[in-house]
Each structure stands twice: as C-alpha cells, then as structure tokens.
C-alpha cells in the first residue's frame, strides 16, 4: 500500500468518526508523533525518504523484555504441594451457598 493510498484510507475513516472519537484520534496521532520523535533522532528522520519512514514505522516493534530478570534474585522453591495448598485455600469454599 502506497503512502497516498494510506492517506486516502485514513481520510475516509476520519470523515466517518463522531466528534468524541475525532478527539481521541487526534490524541493518538500526537502520541505517534511523540513516539517517532523519541525513537529516531531528528537528523535521521529529516534525511530518510517518506516511504522508508513509513516502512520503518510499520515494521518496527518495541523489544520484548526478558521476565527472568525480574525473578533473578528471588530465592523461592515452589513445589506442587505448595500450589495444591494455595488452590485449596482459594477454592475450598467454592461454590458457597448464598442463603
């Protein structure tokens, strides 16, 4: 899809939005501009052709964080018995008679 086709599609969708959603769309576009400015420095975005900028924005994703680092210093040895006890505590009275 070319940049012109994308713009036409966006214009068609914007024309159909009610005012409250137009405000949300404007806020989202401001967010996208901020995100792009933060991700790329101003010199790179000025020298990059429009089609490359569009392809870059569409293809780039935020890197995923490794959650193992969150638990690296957590010294825990959770056994199947521990899990069974916790389940019994949570679900022991389910379903309760409501009377």
Describe the overall structure:
The chain has 99 residues and is mostly helical. It has a domain at 3-59. It has helices at 3-15, 19-39, 42-47, 50-59, 80-91. The longest helix has 21 residues, at 19-39. It is elongated. The mean pLDDT is 78.
SSE order and pairing:
Layout: H1 3-15, H2 19-39, H3 42-47, H4 50-59, H5 80-91
Features:
mainly alpha; 63% helix; elongated; 99 residues
What would you call the shape? elongated
Which percent bin holds the helix content?
55-70%
The proportion of strand residues reads under 5%
Number of helical elements: 5
- Oligomer state equals single chain
Major pleated sheet: none
For the termini, the CA-CA separation is 62 Å
Radius of gyration: 25 Å
Low-pLDDT stretches: none
Provide a short characterization of the protein structure.
This protein has 99 residues and is mostly helical. It has helices at residues 3-15, 19-39, 42-47, 50-59, 80-91.
């Amino acid at each position: 899809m070319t940049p012109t086709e994308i713009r036409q599609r966006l214009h068609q969708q914007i024309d159909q939005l009610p005012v409250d959603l137009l405000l949300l769309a404007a806020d989202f576009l401001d967010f996208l501009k901020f995100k792009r400015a933060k991700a790329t420095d101003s010199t790179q975005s000025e020298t990059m052709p429009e089609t490359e900028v569009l392809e870059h924005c569409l293809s780039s994703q935020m890197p995923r964080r490794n959650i193992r680092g969150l638990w690296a210093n957590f010294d825990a040895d959770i056994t199947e018995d521990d899990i069974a006890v916790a389940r019994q505590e949570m679900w022991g009275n389910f379903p309760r008679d409501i009377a």
